[in-house]
Structures are given as C-alpha cells and as structure tokens.
C-alpha cells in the first residue's frame, strides 16, 4: 500500500548535473529547471548567498567575503559540500512545498566516471533528500533523448559535448559498445579563447565573456558570412578596461586545438568500433548533443574529417535531461540502461 501511495505522490526527478548548467525533469511535468551550476557562498561562515542564475551574475564581481564557485569540474563533483548545497537548493526549489515522499532521482554522469566519483554523486543526492538514486551515462541519455533506436541490434553513435567533457559513444542493444570521455569541451573552448586573446592582444577577459564570444561568433570551420563582436576586457600593459572587436576567423584560430581534440576522439571511436557496427554508423550517421553541438560549423568539420553524415539533436542543450526523463517515466522498460 505504501509503495502504491509513493508511486502516486512522489515527485520523482531526473537531473542533468552539468559542469555549466543543471537541468531537472519532473515525472509528469517535463523540464522544470535550467540554471547555471554556480553557488555563491559567504567565506566567513559558509552560508549560501545565491545559487544558479543569481550566483552566476555575481561571478568575478564579489567582495572578498563572498566567493562564487562552480562546484562541478569536468562533469564530476569537484567540491562535495558545495555540490550538496547546490543540489539541495535545486531539489527544494522544484519540489516547493510539502512533499510527502522523498523523490527517486536519476542523475546523468560522464561515461568515464570513477567509482569514487559515482559514490560522491549518489551520496550528495541522498543527503539532498533523494529516496533512491540511479545513475545513467550521458551518451545513453543523449541517445534516448535524440530518439535513437538504442534497443535494436544496430549501432548508434552519439557525440555529447557538454561544459566539462566530450562523450563519444557507440550504442547497441540498450548498452554501450564503446565509449570515450575526453575532458575537452565547452570550458576548454572558453579557456582557449581567453588564452588566445591574452597571448595575441595582451588583454585579459573573463570566462563568461569568452563563453558569450564563443556562442556568438565561435566556429569549427569557415563560415559563409564574416561575423564580428565587441569584447570587453582589461589591457594587461596599461591596466585599464578596454573594448575591442574580433571576428570569427580570429576566434576559430583560438578554438582549433579543442576542436581537433574532439575530432581525434571521434576518429578513435570509429577505429575501435567493430565492422558490423561501423556499417550501421556509415548508413545512419552521427548525432551531436550537448551545448557544444551548437558551435557553428562543427557538423561540416566532422563530416569533412570522417566522411559520415552528421546530425544535430533537436534542442541539443536538453537532449540529455529529456532522455533521462524518458527513463524516469518508463523505468520498468528502460531502467536497465542505468549503471547502478
């Protein structure tokens, strides 16, 4: 009887605990939260000042007593205590009010996650109020969210480019035939832009300014039309604030190394895949998911390098949490894809 009541009233959740953003899907309601994975704390007493969008707005602008922290690094927990506070805040926010039964939670994790990192995710979720925690690898969730036939005896290939990791995986029969997790993704691209501007122009810019530039004019291959944007930073020689203009070719040069790393990871996956699965991938192509899939010209660059058809998932930013949500909604049939 208790089990039936729990099934009726528990507000079970699917969480994409990303390096850059955290997304939450509630059973029966869909995606109900999409916030930056940032926490602002008081350094004196450890009190949480802000979480999510409000904390991101403070990043780099706080007094000495307040620090804005990104507790996730390379797709996994870098600061356990801060991550626990962040998850607790988000769970309380989405449950908002009395929740008779603690929720069952499914959390996305990188395919290269260690046992220690798995335990950290599970423990932080349980301490944040979860009744039970299941883990699903991000490429599997991305494939389900992209409507790929992962249950069939056919190869499906997914490249999930998040904030901290790029996951390349070949899936078949509801399992992973090959996967590789490379810690080169959106954050590395932002860092590459910051370093390139510093090295060439002697100007320092912040990570969120680099992210904006990447999203506006960043590209992996030449564009049909030249793009430009204004950038704000600090002149390292004179020490004064400056505003300057850069174009897409300058930023493409900055992004060359991280893009090459993603291409090489894709090539390795193709080299290590069986001939039978390779034949399926040749026929059906590769699906791109995650925020990095929005990088202009990435599909054409990967097509040029591999000769394979490249497709972008519908709304790649939410493909993972939508796939995790589908597992949550249909746990009896899809629960076998979870890794714990």
TrEMBL record:
Species per Swiss-Prot/TrEMBL record: Tectimicrobiota bacterium
Upper lineage: Bacteria, Pseudomonadati, Nitrospinota/Tectimicrobiota group, Candidatus Tectimicrobiota
GO cellular component, one term: cytoplasm
Protein's name according to its UniProt entry: Cell shape-determining protein MreB
Keyword Cytoplasm listed: yes
Main location (coarse class): cytoplasm
InterPro entries referenced in this protein's UniProt entry, alphabetically: ATPase_NBD, MreB, MreB_MamK-like
Location(s), subcellular: Cytoplasm
GN (gene name): mreB
Family label: Belongs to the FtsA/MreB family.
Assembly notes: Forms polymers.
């Amino acid at each position: 009887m208790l089990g039936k009541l729990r099934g009726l009233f528990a507000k079970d959740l699917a969480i994409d605990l990303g390096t850059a953003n955290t997304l939450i899907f509630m059973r029966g309601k869909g995606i109900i939260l999409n916030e930056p994975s940032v926490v602002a704390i008081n350094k004196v007493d450890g009190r949480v000042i802000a979480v999510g969008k409000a904390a991101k707005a403070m990043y780099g602008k706080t007094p000495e007593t307040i620090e804005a922290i990104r507790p996730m690094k390379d797709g996994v927990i870098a600061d356990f205590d801060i991550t626990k506070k962040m998850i607790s805040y988000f769970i309380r926010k989405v449950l908002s009010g009395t929740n008779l039964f603690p929720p069952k939670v499914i959390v996305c994790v990188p395919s290269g996650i260690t046992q220690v990192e798995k335990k950290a995710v599970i423990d932080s979720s349980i301490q944040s109020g979860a009744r039970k925690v299941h883990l699903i690898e991000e490429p599997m969730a991305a494939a389900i969210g992209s409507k790929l036939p992962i249950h069939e005896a056919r190869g499906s290939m997914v490249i999930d480019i998040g904030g901290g990791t790029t996951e390349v995986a070949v899936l078949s029969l509801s399992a992973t035939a090959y996967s590789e997790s490379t810690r080169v993704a959106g954050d590395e691209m932002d860092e590459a832009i910051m370093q390139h501007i510093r090295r060439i122009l002697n100007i320092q810019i912040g990570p969120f300014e680099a992210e904006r530039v990447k999203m506006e004019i960043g590209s992996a291959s030449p564009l049909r039309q030249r793009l430009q944007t204004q950038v704000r930073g600090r002149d390292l020689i004179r020490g004064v604030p400056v505003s300057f203009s850069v174009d897409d070719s300058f930023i493409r040069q900055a992004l060359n190394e991280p893009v090459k790393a993603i291409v090489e990871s894709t090539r390795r996956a193709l080299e290590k895949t069986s001939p039978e699965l390779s034949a399926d991938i040749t026929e059906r192509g590769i699906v791109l998911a995650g925020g990095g899939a929005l990088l202009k010209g990435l599909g054409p660059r990967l097509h040029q390098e591999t000769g394979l058809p490249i497709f972008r998932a519908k709304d790649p930013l939410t493909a993972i949490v939508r796939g995790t949500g589908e597992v949550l909604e249909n746990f009896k049939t899809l629960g076998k894809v979870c890794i714990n």
